[in-house]
Amino acid sequence: MLRERYEQKPTPRNSIALGTALMWVGEYVTAREHFRSSLEKAKRLRMGSERDYVFLGAAEWCGDNYAAAVECWRAGRTAPYATLGVCIHSPMLLFVASKLRPELPLSTGAILDELREKLADPRTKMWPGTLAQFIAGLTSIEAVQSSWVGTREQNAKGVFPDCRWVTEFYGELLQLHEGRTTLQRFKQVMVRLAAPVQYATWEEDDFVHLMRFPEFYIARHESRA
């Protein structure tokens, strides 16, 4: 149904819906082909979105193509369109790659410096910019937590569990970065974060938003590595 909807109306919304569904069921090769095709179409129209790059990279990562994932995220840093209008998600994922695969030719310090430069833009003062600020050491966990609260579909106001989930993901990664945990311990936490019990009782809207975090698929992959 999602494929048919996308073929009939290839909008960015329908593209991400199909791509994340493929990621969810573990069809990473098909997801990679989908995101690559979607990105090529968008680039021809000069409308490439950072989201396409980050998900293409996630599909590569989950297929054990780590160097290819890094190239996707490097390219995503200069995409014409991005959440909040600033490409902060790609550097965040490059930070992930630098910690989970230290053998890759990445400099964690340089990645964080670039992220801090991007965060000087005032548009990044709201979520998910607050999360990026926390990763870059520019704000506190309390400031991030306060940005979880908002309004979604049907005017349901509250703390979004998907935001809590991805904050915990990066919180654990920062502990690894700071030497307060080990890679083995990190992967054990990923087993817990990727377990269905984490989201089985969530509202549908919250679950859909979790599916749109490439970090979830990376966590699931790492929990099985």
Can you walk through the features of this model?
It is a single chain. 64% of the residues lie in helices and 3% in strands. It is mainly α. The chain folds into two domains: 1-98, Serine Threonine Protein Phosphatase 5, Tetratricopeptide repeat (Alpha Horseshoe), CATH 1.25.40; 119-225, no CATH class. The protein has a two-stranded antiparallel sheet. Helix 2 (12-24) runs antiparallel to helix 3 and helix 11 packs across helix 13 (214-224).
**Low-confidence segments:** none
Number of helices in the DSSP assignment: 13
Written as H for each helix and E for each strand, in order along the chain, the element string is HHHHHHHHHEEHHHH
- Percent of residues in helices: 55-70%
The averaged pLDDT comes out at: 91
Into which percentage range does the β-strand content fall? Answer: under 5%
Judged by helices, strands and strand pairing, the structural class is mainly alpha
**Largest pleated sheet:** 2 strands, antiparallel
| Global morphology | globular
Radius of gyration: 17 Å
Number of domains: 2
Strand order of the largest sheet: 1-2
CA-CA gap between termini? 32 Å
Strand runs, count? 2
Sequence-ordered SSE layout with sheet pairings:
Elements: H1 2-8, H2 12-24, H3 28-44, H4 50-62, H5 66-76, H6 89-100, H7 108-118, H8 129-135, H9 141-146, E1 149-151, E2 157-159, H10 161-177, H11 183-194, H12 204-211, H13 214-224
Antiparallel strand pairs: 1-2
